[in-house]
Structures are given as C-alpha cells and as structure tokens.
Amino acid sequence: MTVPAPLAEVVSDFGAVQGQDKLKLLLEFADELPALPSDLEEAAMEPVPECQSPLFLHVDASDTEHVRLFFSAPAEAPTTRGFASILAAGLDGQSAADILAVPDDFYSELGLAALISPLRLRGMSAMLARIKRRLRATT
C-alpha cells in the first residue's frame, strides 16, 4: 500500500495495538481533531451525509503541492471525529497527487473492522471519496 508517510505512520500506530486498544487509539485521535481556523465557518463546508454523525469537510487545493483539509464533527461523535482526525493527521499538507493515490480502502489496514460497524467504516470511505472528488474537480 502506497500512502503518504504521515498516513503510513497512523496505519503503523494502529497496527501496533490490538483489540480494544485500537478503539482507545481512535478516541485519542478524536480528541486531537484540529479546530477550524477562525476564517472558516461550518456553514461554508461540505457535509458528508454518509457519516452516521454530522461531519463537514473543506478541501483547500489552492496549492496542489500542499492541500489543506479541515473537518468539523461534534464532540459527541467520537468515532466520526476519530476518522476525520486520522485523515487530517495523515493527509493534511500532502500533495493532491499523493492524496489521490491513497487506496480507497486504506482504512481496512487500521484493523477496526472487527470493532466498528461496516456502516461507520463507510463514513471514513465517504470522507476520502469526497476529498478526492474535490481534488479532481479543482486540479
């Protein structure tokens, strides 16, 4: 699997823990979701209705070598926040080409399928798909 180094590190972190510790790690990521910049309002962001909880994202590809990704999800949606934070940690600041090359099912390497419902996992897939769609439309 070819993914940007920061995303490979996240995948490695999940690979290093087992069972319920994977959920704990996901919750740690949820707590680390970066806040939105003051000039970006949730109302201006794209909703991701495939997610079980409200999630909004914004893709800034004005510099295709350093794409910026922003996510907003409520604190009471830790799984969704965790997924968004994984994508932020692994893909924010990467080039459009590198993001577009990420396998659509990279999240299967996190080993969460036995712990999280397929419906929730589809939310992560939907986030990545929307990011890629935005990049294809703007690059």
Number of strands: 3
Write down the domain tally.
Answer: 1
Task: Give the strand line-up of the largest sheet.
Answer: 1-2-3
The DSSP helix count reads: 5
Fold-level CATH name? Sufe protein. Chain: A
Global outline: globular
Structural class: mainly alpha
Compressed to H and E, one letter per element, the order equals HHEEEHHH
Any low-confidence stretches, pLDDT <50, length ≥5?
Answer: none
Top-tier CATH class: Alpha Beta
End-to-end distance: 24 Å
Instruction: Just name the CATH architecture.
Output: Alpha-Beta Complex
Main pleated-sheet profile: 3 strands, antiparallel
Q: Oligomerization state of this entry?
A: single chain
Family: Belongs to the SufE family.
Domain Fe-S metabolism associated: 13-133
Organism: Mycolicibacterium sarraceniae
Pfam families: SufE (PF02657)
Describe this structure in words.
There is one protein chain. It is built from five helices and three strands. It is mainly α and 139 residues long. The chain has one domain (5-36, 43-138): Sufe protein. Chain: A. The chain has a three-stranded antiparallel sheet, covered by helices on one side. The chain is globular and about 40 Å long. The relative contact order is 0.22.
Brief digest:
This protein is mostly helical and 139 residues long. It has one domain: Alpha-Beta Complex (Sufe protein. Chain: A), CATH 3.90.1010.10. 45% of the residues lie in helices and 9% in strands.
Question: What are the defining features of this structure?
Answer:
139 residues, mainly alpha, Sufe protein. Chain: A, three-stranded antiparallel β-sheet, 5 helices, 3 strands, 9% strand
